[in-house]
Amino acid sequence: MGRMSLVSLGLILLSGCALFRSSPRPAKVTPEEAAHYKFPVVLPTEGQHVLPGPIAAAIAFAMEDFLPLGTKPPRDATPTELCALRRESYDVTAVPGPENVVFVSFAVRANACRDLQGPSLSDTPIVYAVDVGRWLILSVQK
């Protein structure tokens, strides 16, 4: 095999490795700081939201497609664009559908990203149809 063939093969293999990168993990505090955090003896019921496992998993699955962890804004991003890249800027609605489908809707929170420099965000929610039996995104309505 010629030198150029070896170089080409190496480049192909290296570019393929990019497909196997793990996704970013959520940041955690140091073990020392974590040791000082005190959990309540019993979780409060006020404000509590209990989500069935498939619903919670469908939300996480759709959110990772909608706004993946580690998404970096462009250098010249406007304040509105920066706001749009924060997951907490969105309200989420999840509704079970037929045949293992969960509909997950992301809508900009009422007071998020308003009165900021740059074009305003659409008030139209983005809705995902997630097959929780096969873990596939069936469709995205924008």
Outline the secondary-structure elements.
Blueprint: H1 3-17, H2 31-36, H3 53-66, H4 79-84, E1 90-96, E2 101-108, E3 126-131, E4 136-141
Antiparallel strand pairs: 1-2, 2-3, 3-4
Summary?
The chain is an alpha+beta fold.
Give structural notes.
With 142 residues, this protein is an alpha+beta fold. The chain contains four helices and four strands; from the N terminus they run H-H-H-H-E-E-E-E. Strand 3 and strand 4 form a beta hairpin.
Strand content: 15-25%
**Principal-axes shape call:** globular
Cα-atom radius of gyration: 21 Å
Structural class: alpha+beta
Number of alpha- plus pi-helical segments: 4
Distance between the termini: 50 Å
Total number of strands: 4
- Poorly predicted sequence stretches spanning 5 or more consecutive residues: 4-15
List keywords for this structure.
about 140 residues; alpha+beta; 4-stranded antiparallel beta sheet; 4 helices; 4 strands
